[in-house]
C-alpha cells in the first residue's frame, strides 16, 4: 500500500528501479489525475474485468499465428536474453510471412528507459485510401505544384498539413511513393460497445502508436544505449548464459527458427507479457540453428548487437529516410467475441509527440502537478465513469467553474464533498498526496 505522506515524485516513488512503460506515458492522456489516484492507492493500475477480457482477446489473436515453447532460465541474463531472442525471431517472421505480433521495443526518454510491445507489425497497408492521400500530398510538396491545403478529415485523424509539419522525423526529403517494403504498425483495442471512438477519446492510442514508431525507428538506427537498460536491471552484459538455458535452446525443433517463451521475468515490465513463437521457412531454419546461434552470441552484449543487425536487415533506416510508414492504425475489436468493429488511422507527428512526452515527463519527475480533464464536455463523460469521481477535487472545481454541477456530479456528490472536507481530504499533487 503506497504511503499517503510520501512527497517524492511519481518516478521516484513508483519507477525508481523499474523501467517506465509506454502505458505509463500514454494512460495519463485519458486523465492524469485518475492515473495519479490509481498509483497512490494501488501502486499500479488495478486490472478490471474488462481489462482481463481484453487480454484474453489479445491472447486469442496471438495464438492464430503463434506457438509457444517453454525455455529454462537460471539467471537474470538468461531471462532478458529470451526477450532479445524473441525480438530477433519476430523480425525474421516479419520478413518471412509479412507479419509479426507482440514485438518488444525499448526507448530512452530524457535518460529514462521506456519499454513496450507493438501488437502488430506488417507489410500490409491497413488504410490504402489514407496512405494515397499522404503520398499525393508528398508529391505536391516535392514538385511545389500547389500549396498544402487543410483537408476535411475525421476529428480523430491528423490533417495533411499536420502530417507535413511532423514529416521531418519520417523522411527528410519527401518521396513520391512508398518504399517497396514499407512497414506498418497497428494496435488492437477491445471495446464493450460496437462503436469506434473518435476525436479526443483516441489521444492515448495515438500517442502509444507514435511512441512505438519512434522507438522502433531509433532501435533500427542503433540509437538506443543498451548499457542504460542493462544497468537499470542490474544485468551483466558480458556474463555467459547458463548451461540450462543453452540446453533448453538446443531442444528447439529444427524445423523452426522460433522465439522461445518463458514466464515470470517481472523486470521486462511490458504492456502484455505474452511471449511468442513463430515458424520460419525451412531455408531460414537451416540458416539459423538455435544452438549454434546462441553459442555465437552467448552474452547479452553480443546478443543485443545481433538483434540490432536483424533490425537493420529488416528495417533499413538512414538520417533522411525510414521504411516505417507514418501511417499508424488502431484496430477495435469486440471485447465479447473478438470480432472486428472498425479501424482508425492517423499520421505520425513528431512535434505533437515531442510536446506530449515533454509534458508527461515533467509530471513524472514532479515538476508539475497532475491535471484532470480540461474540457467540460469531455469531463462530462470521463468523470461519470471514473471510480475516483467522489474524491476528485479537480472535478469539483471544474463543476464550480463552469456552473454545471448537475452535469459532472453524481446525486450524492454534495454530501461526499462535505464529508471529504470535514475529514481534511488532501489535494492530489504529483509530488505529494
Task: Give the helix/strand layout.
Layout: H1 10-14, E1 20-21, H2 22-26, H3 32-42, H4 49-63, H5 76-97, E2 99-109, E3 112-122, H6 128-143, H7 160-165, E4 183-191, H8 203-220, H9 226-232, H10 243-250, H11 282-287, H12 290-296, H13 300-314, E5 317-318, E6 321-322, E7 324-334, E8 340-347, H14 350-364, H15 376-382, H16 393-402, H17 405-408, H18 413-422
Parallel strand pairs: 1-3, 4-7
Antiparallel strand pairs: 2-3, 3-4, 5-6, 7-8
Helix pairs in contact: 5-13, 10-12
Give an account of the 3D structure:
The chain has 18 helices and eight strands. With 433 residues, it is an alpha/beta fold. A hairpin with a 2-residue loop joins strand 2 and strand 3 (112-122). Residues 146-176, 253-286 and 410-433 have low confidence and may be disordered. Helix 5 (76-97) packs parallel to helix 13 and helix 10 (243-250) runs antiparallel to helix 12 (290-296). It is 43% helix and 13% strand. It has two domains: 1-371, no CATH class; 376-422, no CATH class. It starts with 9 loop residues before the first helix and ends in an 11-residue tail after the last helix. Strands 1, 2, 3, 4, 7 and 8 form a six-stranded mixed sheet that branches. It has a two-stranded antiparallel sheet with strand order 5-6. GO terms for molecular function: 4 iron, 4 sulfur cluster binding; single-stranded DNA 5'-3' DNA exonuclease activity. One of its GO terms (biological process) is interstrand cross-link repair. Its cofactor is [4Fe-4S] cluster. This is Exonuclease V. Keywords: 4Fe-4S, Exonuclease, Hydrolase, Iron, Iron-sulfur, Metal-binding, Nuclease.
Amino acid at each position: 500500500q503506497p504511503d499517503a505522506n510520501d512527497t517524492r515524485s511519481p518516478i521516484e516513488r513508483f519507477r525508481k528501479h523499474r523501467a517506465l512503460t509506454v502505458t505509463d506515458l500514454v494512460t495519463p492522456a485519458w486523465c492524469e489525475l485518475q492515473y495519479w489516484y490509481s498509483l497512490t492507492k494501488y501502486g499500479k493500475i488495478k486490472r478490471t474485468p474488462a481489462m482481463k477480457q481484453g487480454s484474453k482477446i489479445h491472447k486469442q489473436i496471438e495464438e492464430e499465428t503463434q506457438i509457444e515453447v517453454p525455455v529454462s532460465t537460471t539467471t537474470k541474463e538468461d531471462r532478458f536474453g529470451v526477450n532479445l531472442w524473441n525480438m530477433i525471431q519476430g523480425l525474421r517472421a516479419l520478413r518471412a510471412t509479412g507479419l509479426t505480433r507482440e514485438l518488444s521495443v525499448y526507448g530512452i526518454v530524457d535518460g529514462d528507459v521506456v519499454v513496450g510491445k507493438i501488437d502488430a507489425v506488417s507489410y500490409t497497408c491497413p488504410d490504402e485510401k489514407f496512405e494515397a492521400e499522404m503520398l499525393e500530398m508528398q508529391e505536391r510538396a516535392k514538385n511545389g505544384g500547389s500549396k498544402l491545403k487543410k483537408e476535411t478529415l475525421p476529428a480523430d485523424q491528423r490533417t495533411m498539413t499536420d502530417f507535413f509539419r511532423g514529416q521531418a522525423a519520417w523522411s527528410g526529403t519527401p518521396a513520391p511513393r512508398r518504399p517497396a517494403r514499407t512497414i506498418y504498425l497497428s494496435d488492437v483495442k477491445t471495446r464493450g460497445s460496437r462503436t469506434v471512438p473518435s476525436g479526443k477519446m483516441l489521444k492515448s492510442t495515438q500517442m502509444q502508436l507514435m511512441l512505438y514508431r519512434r522507438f522502433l525507428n531509433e532501435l533500427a538506427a542503433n540509437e538506443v544505449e543498451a548499457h542504460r537498460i542493462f544497468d537499470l536491471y542490474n544485468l551483466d552484459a558480458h556474463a555467459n548464459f547458463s548451461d540450462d538455458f543453452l540446453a533448453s535452446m538446443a531442444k528447439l525443433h529444427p524445423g523452426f527458427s522460433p522465439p522461445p517463451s518463458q514466464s515470470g521475468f517481472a523486470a521486462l515490465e511490458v504492456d502484455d507479457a505474452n511471449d511468442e513463437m513463430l515458424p520460419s521457412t525451412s531455408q531460414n531454419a537451416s540458416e539459423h540453428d538455435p544452438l549454434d546461434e546462441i553459442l555465437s552470441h552467448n552474452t547479452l552484449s553480443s546478443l543485443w548487437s545481433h538483434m540490432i543487425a536483424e533490425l537493420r536487415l529488416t528495417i533499413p533506416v538512414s538520417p533522411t529516410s525510414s521504411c516505417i510508414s507514418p501511417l499508424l492504425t488502431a484496430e477495435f475489436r469486440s471485447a465479447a467475441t473478438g470480432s472486428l468493429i472498425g479501424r482508425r488511422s492517423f499520421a505520425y507527428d513528431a512535434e505533437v509527440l515531442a510536446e506530449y512526452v515533454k509534458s508527461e515527463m515533467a509530471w513524472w519527475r514532479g515538476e508539475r502537478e497532475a491535471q484532470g480533464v480540461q474540457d467540460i464536455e469531455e469531463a462530462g463523460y470521463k468523470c461519470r465513469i471514473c471510480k475516483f469521481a467522489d474524491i476528485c477535487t479537480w472535478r469539483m472545481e471544474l463543476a464550480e467553474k463552469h456552473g454545471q454541477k448537475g452535469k459532472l456530479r453524481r446525486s450524492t456528490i454534495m454530501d461526499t464533498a462535505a464529508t471529504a472536507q470535514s475529514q481534511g481530504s488532501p489535494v492530489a499533487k504529483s509530488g505529494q498526496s
